[in-house]
Amino acid sequence: MGALYMGNKPVLKVDSKVSIVMEQMLRLLHTCGLPVEDVDFINSDGKTMNKLLLEGNPRMTLFTGSSRVAEKLAGDLRGRIKLEDAGFDWKILGPDVHQEDYIAWVCDQDAYACSGQKCSAQSLLFMHEVSHIGHFENLVYDLAERRKLADLTIGPVLTVSIFLCNVQESSVISHCIQNTRISYLRYLGQTALGGRPLEDHSIPPIYGAIKPTAVYVPLEEIMKEKNYELVTKEIFGPFQEVIGKSVNGTTYAGLRARTTGAPRITGKFGPAGDPRGAGIGTPEAIRLVWSCHREIIYDIGPVPQHWEIPPST
What we know:
Layout (H helix, E strand, L loop, with lengths): L1 H4 L5 E2 L6 H13 L8 E2 L4 H11 L4 E3 L3 H10 L4 E3 L5 E5 L6 H13 L9 E6 L5 H13 L25 H9 L6 E2 L25 E6 H4 L2 H7 L7 E6 L38 H8 L23
Parallel strand pairs: 1-2, 3-4, 5-6, 6-9, 8-9
Antiparallel strand pairs: 7-8
Helix pairs in contact: 5-6
């Protein structure tokens, strides 16, 4: 939408698993009055889209995805790219946490709304050791247990499949199994929170169907080299890790701080300190990505009366 607001004609390409969703979004926009010729929509694999970018030589590309592909595109497009890749979000609960019911609800929304399929999903929750961890865990557990497939408060995960190659286990469950090899790790809550497939459904196996999941990881364990990469791996689904004994470009602060439905998106979602960092949503962010600085300097006079050509300088 930002590209359209600035008068551009964008070519839109999304992950093939969610292309049907974006197609319906475009049809909604057409129904609301968007001229059909204003946006081109392409379904393809990554290599085909890369070839299109190289041959089409676009003035600007906004990319959301892995840092590996982002670095390749930055070279291919000679820097004409903005990156929105800061999708691993965390929340920090200090020693003065109060109104635990509200904060637990915000954590539940940030981690599990839309089944965790959002770049603003809460992936890590840091809890200070004096923040009544046991009580707060039970609140998070009870809220997550309310989510049911029947009312779509939990649902299919489009980008994480049930089966991985020949391994007959969910990729999320596989991630949980690897996590449980970390010392002192446990599932969150009174009993295990998640880590299991949804039951009694007809979701195709190409998609994920997993219960809201949280695992508790001691801070000293996450800092070990053998564990760090595993714990900080982003799962685009209803999965988070809770880090005990602890105090991107956008920081949400305050008692009501939330990554989902924040009152004003500041627009900075790219990597902090990187001039390629992109923004979305706000006028400033839209100008940053989809326009460029232009300046007209006026000097309209008037010319003084009786002006004469001066000596050369």
